[in-house]
Design a protein that fits this description.
Function: Catalyzes the attachment of glycine to tRNA(Gly).
Number of strands: 23
Number of helices: 18
EC number: 6.1.1.14
Radius of gyration: 26 Å
CATH class of the largest domain: Alpha Beta
Number of domains: 3
Structural class: alpha+beta
InterPro entries: aa-tRNA-synt_IIb (IPR002314), aa-tRNA-synth_II (IPR006195), aa-tRNA-synth_II/BPL/LPL (IPR045864), Anticodon-bd (IPR004154), Anticodon-bd_dom_sf (IPR036621), Gly-tRNA_synthase/POLG2 (IPR027031), Gly_tRNA_ligase_bac (IPR022961), GlyRS-like_core (IPR033731)
Distance between the termini: 36 Å
Helix content: 25-40%
Shape: globular
Keywords: Aminoacyl-tRNA synthetase, ATP-binding, Cytoplasm, Ligase, Nucleotide-binding, Protein biosynthesis
GO molecular function: glycine-tRNA ligase activity
Largest sheet: 7 strands, mixed
Strand order of the largest sheet: 3-9-10-16-13-12-11
Strand content: 15-25%
């Protein structure tokens, strides 16, 4: 299945099975704004809970926070967002379409990466079991040439953006012969910076209203509360503050479904550390976060680190965990060493000290910060797109199955009476009543049982539990596993333990150890 076709199937499946709807669809929608439907809201909640349990509940020195979306406007002056939170935009004069200049260049490099992947597949087919991928990537002249070209392009792009040499960014686009994806035209405007913050007003009248911004990130709410949390929680460095919540960015080009939206949710943790220890903690959290991702079983080959060529103004080290989406490797989570920039900026603009007194050193200092930041919506898309597969079955038919990690699935089990009579629905509904105290479960009695199995496969439900006439005699049911389609006869009283063994967070997070 071609990647474009796969992505179209992902978007279609998300709507058809109640995961994601276009916002305000009856009014033809609102660009790059989406609603999470009845199954989507459960999957999103389960991802958030999985992150929270791992980050907060499993760490003695990390606590939570829920800061407000509205913040004093000086916050964004201090953080640098008013002056520096912008993306380079470029317009095509013929199509009148607007693009992020850096994304155009990155997409060009992604096409070269696709050529590398094709070379790898051809070689793997040719050499079979004797194929050594790492050796091939480092020695094959064509692949090495492709990789050198990518590195050269991205290095130049990073240096130009860091120096704010927007003329060279345009020159790079022209030298690479990048055309407008819509019109095929290479007639570009100059590159300009575009601030991404949404402005709003606070106040009852136009005369007294003050200008505010919808927060473009959740981190600043943590920084301004650093001392409040540290003192009230009697926290000792190193310690972390975690938060999930909405952020808003007026993206130049919001695209690729829920990958890049104007209203999105972040899951962030800011880890406050002693100056001079930042590189140690940077490496630690890189590995910890990758372990968390891998614990979900989405495939180790679908992750990679991408170190930043261009560092943000506050960072001394930064890397992304990239995931292989249907449209290529893209950023899923960022790990940044933010130094003491944020706390010192807020000290300067507020006139209040934000320092930590270290009793061991008998000295005060401004802590450094190590940040982990993941987009919840992007994580949703990573999980969902990876899970959607079409399988060829032994009887020459196919089935569409959403192989969500069982710990994240919206419904853990579907309870199915074989027929809608003979007391079977009553037993099935009693099983629902018993299980719903511990799990999200659903009841399904419409259509033949085979069609119900297929429907639950496509919904991502890990277990189907069928009540039949034998159940009346032996108090046993048939439990079917989504991924293997294996069916077993089990006692009703054992259902809770069987399901828990597969969906319990502890079972999944222990893979990180």
């Amino acid at each position: 299945m071609a990647n474009d076709d796969q992505f179209k199937k992902v978007i279609s499946h998300a709507k058809e099975y109640g995961y994601v709807f276009q916002s305000s669809e009856i009014y033809d929608g609102l660009s790059a704004v989406y609603d999470y439907a009845q199954n989507g809201v459960e999957l999103k909640k389960n991802i958030r809970d999985y992150w929270w349990k791992s980050m907060v509940q499993m760490h003695d020195n990390i606590v939570g926070l829920d800061a407000s979306i509205f913040m004093h406007p000086t916050t964004w002056k201090a953080s640098g967002h008013v002056d520096a939170f912008s993306d380079p935009l470029i317009d095509n004069k013929d199509s009148k379409k607007r693009y992020r200049a850096d994304v155009l260049v990155e997409d060009y490099c992604a096409k070269i990466e696709t050529k590398i992947e094709k070379e790898v597949k051809k070689a793997a087919k040719r050499f079979g079991d004797a194929f050594n991928k790492d050796e091939f990537l480092s020695t094959n002249p064509r692949v090495v040439g492709y990789q050198e070209k990518i590195n050269s392009i991205l290095k130049r792009l990073g240096q130009s953006l860091e120096k704010e040499d927007l003329a060279d960014v345009k020159a790079l686009i022209e030298e690479l012969g990048i055309a407008c994806p819509v019109a095929g035209s290479k007639n570009w405007t100059d590159v300009k910076q575009f601030n991404l913050m949404f402005g709003t007003k606070l106040g009852a009248s136009a005369d007294t209203a003050i200008d505010l911004y919808l927060r473009p990130e959740t981190a600043q709410g943590i920084f301004v509360n650093f001392l409040n949390v540290q003192k009230t929680g009697r926290m000792k460095i190193p310690f972390g503050i975690a938060q999930t919540g909405k952020a808003f960015r007026n993206e130049i080009v919001a695209r690729q479904f829920i990958f890049r939206m104007r209203e999105f949710e972040q899951m962030e943790m800011q880890y406050f550390i002693k100056p001079g220890t930042q590189l140690k903690w940077f490496e630690y959290w890189k590995e910890e976060r990758l372990k968390w991702h891998k614990s979900l079983g989405l495939g180790e080959e679908n992750y990679r680190f991408h170190d930043h060529e261009k560092l943000a103004h506050y960072a001394d080290a930064a890397t992304d965990i990239e995931f292989r989406f249907p449209f290529g490797f893209k950023e899923l989570e960022g790990i940044h060493s933010r130094t003491d920039f944020d706390l010192k900026q807020h000290e300067e603009f507020s006139g209040k000290k934000l320092q930590y007194f270290d009793h061991e050193d008998n000295a005060s200092y401004t802590p450094y910060v190590l940040e982990t930041s993941i987009g919840l919506d992007r994580m949703f898309l990573a999980v969902f797109s990876n899970a959607l597969v079409e399988e060829e079955l032994d009887n020459n038919t196919t089935r569409t199955v959403l192989k969500l990690p069982a710990v994240l699935a919206p419904n853990k089990a579907a309870i199915l009476p074989l027929v809608k009579k003979d007391g079977l629905p009553e037993i099935a509904k009693q099983i629902v009543e018993d299980l719903k105290w511990d799990f999200n479960v659903t009841y399904d009695e419409k259509d033949a049982v085979g069609r119900r199995y297929r429907r639950q496969d496509a919904n991502g439900t890990p277990f189907c539990i069928t009540v039949d006439h034998d159940t009346l005699e032996d108090q046993s049911v048939t439990i079917r596993h989504r991924d293997t389609m294996e069916q077993k006869r089990v006692k009703i009283e054992d259902l809770k333990d069987i399901i828990k063994a597969e969906v319990d967070v502890k079972h999944w997070l222990k893979k990180m150890k």
